Amino acid sequence: MNNRKIKKVVIAGGGTAGWMAAASLAKLLGKTLDITLIESDDIPTVGVGEATIPTLITLHQLLKINEKEFLAAVQGTFKLGISFENWRDVNQDYIHSFGWTGKDCWAAGFQHFWKKGLDLGISEEFGKYCPEWAAAKANKFAVLSREGLNYAYHIDAGLYAKFLRKMAEEHGAQRQEGKIKRVNLNADDGYIESLLLESGQVIDGDLFIDCTGFRGLLIEQALHVGYDDWSHWLPCDGAIAVQTESLGEPIPYTRSIAHGAGWQWRIPLQERVGNGLVFSSKFWSDDQAIDCLTKNIEGKPLNDPRVIKFKTGQRRKHWHKNCVAMGLSSGFIEPLESTSIHLIQRAIVRLMQMFPYDGIRQPDVEEFNAQMKFESDNIRDFIILHYHVTDRSDTEFWRHCRNMEVPESLTHRIELFKQTGRVFKVPTELFGENSWIQVMLGQGLMPEQYHPIVNMMSDAELKDFLVGIRSQVDRTVAQLPSHADFIRHFAPTMARD
Ligand SMILES: Cc1cc2nc3c(=O)[nH]c(=O)nc-3n(C[C@H](O)[C@H](O)[C@H](O)COP(=O)(O)OP(=O)(O)OC[C@H]3O[C@@H](n4cnc5c(N)ncnc54)[C@H](O)[C@@H]3O)c2cc1C
């Protein structure tokens, strides 16, 4: 144990990760801590990261963020899921929605009832039994007080950082402008003592949060914790990002459109669309990727396409000595399921749960690292699933993805679902059964059998059961306004000023 008491927290970096950490710590622990955030106007943030998942709402509730003010400030729209287009095969689409599909029984999930119905010719498309799926398809949305929809947000990343900065400063966090030139380590124990800025100023602290982006200035460049590279499982290593003018009303879901050697995102905000293409440099050059994206965007570009390079994987330790890495400095899983902001949030909450006021204890550090690794490994498997289980064989990239080796843990899940229709969520992993089922079915993996408990229902009872769920979904969706109308009344943007 290191007995140094933790009073002064220094956050290096002011992107989404830095300001999320500053706002959360200042709001929830600020009275007991002295918080400084250092960022450099000369080093831009990554500037992407605009699709979220429903867990963000939990953090916002904890921080008592007013949803209307937040949405208006960040040009926010609502997100009910992700539409995966051309993933299973060209011209085949499915939606991974945030909702729950159908009704389970104690022994078997809804997919077993649906599968028997399919064999009998009485089941409709799996998603039709899920209100979020049906609302997304109908372009409808509302925040309902009872039996509401599960949703997340699309946000402008730059405006979100501004929003959080205001909150952090209101709760006492100090912003320090300046470029970090050197990380000073204690000669005896290797802990970080201070950061030297180019101006010559020295910022000392007890605990350092590395939010410096891919460079990992503290956790890697100074503390050398090492990196687990996952490129052999997730071959994409580059992205092109460009913003465009909106052509129509925003839709309530993210679009992920697969192409020859990667995929394209479309994230609709209130007044513009975030676009990008994630691709593998083994199969496409930057020029080919830019060409593909340029041909597939709608609306006038608002900036020049930007190329971002990355290596998928994670730091061997997220917390080492008195440094905790959050955001891109801790690792990166490509944005297919919009999980990075979630991982920042999890790191913040975990750190607060284990906050080392009286000195850093190694069991806390190990627990923190084990939990972050467990969560990242499960997300990694879920992302690989989208690439690996596919009927696509039209390009070298897709043939590579179909044939590549995948982690044992994923092979087991795929085989279990294929042979038995069963899916089990590992406690504390992010994606639940319904997410795995939607993606496995969507990617073309059909269970060979259903659980025999389904046979306790007669065929007529099964039909009534399925029709009943559909009617309930239809009733829920019928009462909803259009997504655009809802936003216009709920939280129109203030971003123009
Ligand atoms: C292509 C792409 C798409 C993505 N899409 C999504 C998405 O849809 N959803 C999602 O959840 N996540 C997404 N992400 C991830 C998301 O963008 C990041 O998790 C998030 O933006 C956090 O970034 P960051 O704050 O860690 O790093 P950055 O934004 O890179 O910020 C780094 C900060 O460190 C500062 N800094 C660096 N070096 C120094 C220095 N020497 N001195 C002083 N300051 C310094 C910089 O000034 C900056 O403020 C995406 C990422 C990529 C690459």
Automatic annotation (TrEMBL):
Residue ranges that the Swiss-Prot or TrEMBL entry lists as coiled coil: none
Key words, A-Z: FAD, Flavoprotein, Nucleotide-binding, Oxidoreductase
Binding site for FAD: G14, G15, T16, A17, L328, E337, I341
Flavoprotein listed as a keyword: yes
EC category: oxidoreductase
Chain positions recorded as 7-chloro-L-tryptophan binding sites: K79
Keyword match Hydrolase: no
Gene3D superfamilies assigned: FAD/NAD(P)-binding domain (3.50.50.60)
InterPro entries: FAD/NAD-bd_sf, Flavin-dep_Halogenase_NPB, Flavin_halogenase, Trp_halogen
GO function terms (MF aspect): monooxygenase activity; nucleotide binding
Protein name in the entry: Tryptophan halogenase
Organism the protein comes from: Simiduia aestuariiviva
